[in-house]
Amino acid sequence: MKESFELKAVFNASPTEIYDAWLDGEKHGHMTGGEAHCSDKEGGKFSVSDGYIWGINLELHRPDKIVQSWRTSEFETEEEDSRLELQFGEKDGGTELTLIHSNIPEGQTQYLQGWVDHYFTPMKEYFG
Questions:
Q1: Percent of the chain scoring above 90 in pLDDT
Q2: Which of 23, 28, 26 has its CA nearest to residue 43?
Q3: Distance (Å) of CA 121 to CA 9, 11, 69
Q4: Structural domain count of the chain
Q5: Rounded to whole angstroms, how far apart are CA atoms 26 and 46?
Q6: CA 71 to CA 128: how far, in whole Å?
Q7: Is the N or C terminus of the chain more exposed, i.e. has fewer CB atoms within 10 Å?
Q8: Helix pair angle (25-32, 15-22), 10° resolution
Q9: Where are the alpha helices (DSSP H) in 1-128?
């Protein structure tokens, strides 16, 4: 059975600032501390975390939602991409980011903590 989870966090930035940083390679790299190549176009490819993660932008609805195909070097070649959905909503003068990660290969539950350690924690610092 495929794995899935949902995470939420509030950041001290507008939805537009977070949305734009996610899709800008330089800002994404500064935000997470790893090399990133991103696209702000639907159908555009991305590679982040020094090439460990890659995929395609499936849906872009600025500044409310990003949907991406997503995989890592830990996926077997025959496994289909997982799906990452990011929703950005205003909350308490900042942004509540809801991250929904689904269609993850069975047993690969490490990504839940990976999002916290490699994204949410450094993003809190990046956005102050």
A1: 99
A2: 23
A3: 10, 10, 23
A4: 1
A5: 12
A6: 29
A7: N
A8: 100
A9: 15-22, 25-32, 110-115, 121-126
Q: Residue 98 is part of a domain; what is its CATH number?
A: 3.30.530.20
Nearest to 82 by CA among 73, 72, 92: 72
Cα 110 → chain centroid: 15
pLDDT in tens, 107-127: 999 999 999 999 999 999 999
Q: What tens digit of pLDDT does each residue of 1-34 get?
A: 999 999 999 999 999 999 999 999 999 999 999 9
> Which residues constitute the domain of residue 107?
3-126
Residue 117's SS3 state is helix
Q: By the 8 A CB rule, do 37 and 52 touch?
A: no
Write down the pTM of the prediction. Answer: 0.96
Q: Given the structure tokens 């993850």, which residue do they identify?
A: 104
